[in-house]
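Bumping my old thread because nobody answered last time. Still need a sequence for this structure:
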């Protein structure tokens, strides 16, 4: 059975759900062994990209272990990614998704936390899909403190 675009959309959706639940082990199971993750934001003031996070898979595993020791934004984040474009080239798919992240505080009040795009590279291995890389390109340049987890 061939991998379809719906399978790719489901992979992106599962990745968001696992990050929402802070189930980093499940998220990392969706990722290839050489997975890379970046958060980038363009700064109009300095006229170039700022790199807010740049990790390989092993560094993300370590980050997940030490996150409980960090000063954290109280409440939860909920990610919504809407796949805009899927370009397939053999055993690789490039996927661009619009991204909105909502923050809900402990009192139950929600607000927009960040907006941007996911740029994912996905390895297609037979009937299996693995995230090879994810670059988060945010439009939001001020997210405050306590957001050290992947967006």
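Sorry it took so long. Here it is:
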């Amino acid at each position: 059975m061939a991998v379809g675009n719906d399978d790719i959309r489901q992979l992106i959706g599962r990745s968001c759900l696992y990050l929402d639940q802070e189930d980093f082990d499940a998220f990392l199971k969706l990722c290839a062994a050489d997975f890379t993750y970046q958060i980038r934001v363009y700064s109009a003031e300095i006229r170039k990209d700022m790199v807010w996070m740049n990790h390989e898979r092993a560094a993300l595993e370590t980050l997940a272990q030490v996150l409980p020791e960090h000063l954290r934004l109280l409440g939860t984040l909920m990610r919504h990614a809407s796949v805009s474009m899927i370009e397939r080239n053999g055993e690789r798919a490039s996927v661009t998704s619009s991204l909105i992240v909502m923050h809900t505080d402990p009192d139950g009040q929600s607000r927009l936390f960040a907006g941007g795009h996911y740029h994912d590279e996905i390895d297609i291995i037979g009937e299996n899909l693995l995230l090879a890389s994810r670059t988060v390109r945010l439009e939001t340049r001020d997210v405050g403190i306590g957001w050290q987890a992947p967006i």
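The two ends are 32 Å apart (CA to CA). Let me know if any region looks off to you.
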